[in-house]
Amino acid sequence: MIPITSLTVTLNSRYPLDLGGHSGASLRGALYEALAVMYDSGAQPQLADMDSNPTAWLMRLEAETNSGKDVPRPFAIRPPLGLPSTETRFGMSFYGRAAQLIPLVLSAWQGVQTIGLGRNRQKVTLKAVEGFDLLTRQSYSLEAGLPTPTRHEDYQHFATLLHPQRLQMRFLTPTRIIHQEHLCHEPQFRPWFQRLLERLRLLSELYAEPLWIPFADLLAAADEVRLVRDRTHWQEGWTHNRREGMRRPMGGFVGEAHYEGDLRTLLPYVLLGQAVQVGKNTVKGSGWYEVVYQIA
Q1: 208-239 pLDDT per residue, tens
Q2: Which residues lie below 8 Å from residue 42, measured CB to CB, with a gap of 6+?
Q3: CATH numbers and ranges of domains, the chain
Q4: Which residues, in sequence order, are CB contacts of 133 under 8 Å at separation 6+?
Q5: How many Å is the maximal CA-CA distance in the chain?
Q6: Distance CA 40, CA 216 (A)
Q7: N- to C-terminal Cα distance for the chain?
Q8: According to the model, what pLDDT value does residue 67 have?
Q9: pLDDT interval class at 241 (50, 70, 90)
Q10: Pick from 91, 51, 64, 52: which is nearest to 75 by CA?
Q11: Residue 10 — left, alpha, or beta (φ > 0 → left; ψ -120 to 50 → alpha)?
Q12: CA 220 → CA 37, 65, 126, 261, distances in Å?
């Protein structure tokens, strides 16, 4: 599996912090601004060289073999949920060797204290940074340094503890899935699971060791998984891309979905997806889901 290092960051503010309609996009924008001021050397980012321009490598890397298109970013944001508060807590996950840049990212969040955040550039204070295991959902101190990433065997073992034929999901942020050139408005299992496998494969190739995935077998099993209860709804939204000077859609389905089928071979990947997220705009907080653990 891909080595993943996950953190939770807590910011304090004098007044409830208003991050707008898409808090993940606001957090990503603030982080980019601080990193650009502090560490952007202006050099063209190269996949094999994060040191010459860490800001560009983290935020705007392009693939030489992908016709200049953007590649999946080596991190994702889990935005705060609920109403604005004077204590804002959010998560970040770093994939593979991107964990080496965590000290720079944390210093950038220190810089955000000066720049301000959200509407009206409210001043914030960095209260705490903790490690977070998205599989067990346990927080831990970073006093002893960054943790050892969860192993492939841990995901496999955890999957054996869960119900092998029932799966309950909570899509916490808009999940935007394109399947066969069509936008999916319902959380049918095969489309988002296929996007997840493709994302895992690409992230591993770019930022870690290539992950071998038996696509044919897994997708054949995914075809037999049925959506038996759909309690999701569509949440529309747009974000402004400063670099391109245009708006991009961020709408997706959110809510709860229940599935039934033979899930034994699929569950390790579904569990891992809690940390990598799925679909479009993960770096801005989209595609974050949780599995409701049901013991077999």
Answers
A1: 999 899 999 999 999 999 999 999 999 987 77
A2: 53
A3: 4-140 (3.30.70.1890), 152-292 (3.30.70.1900)
A4: 6, 139, 140, 147, 150
A5: 53
A6: 42
A7: 24
A8: 44
A9: low
A10: 91
A11: beta
A12: 48, 29, 47, 12
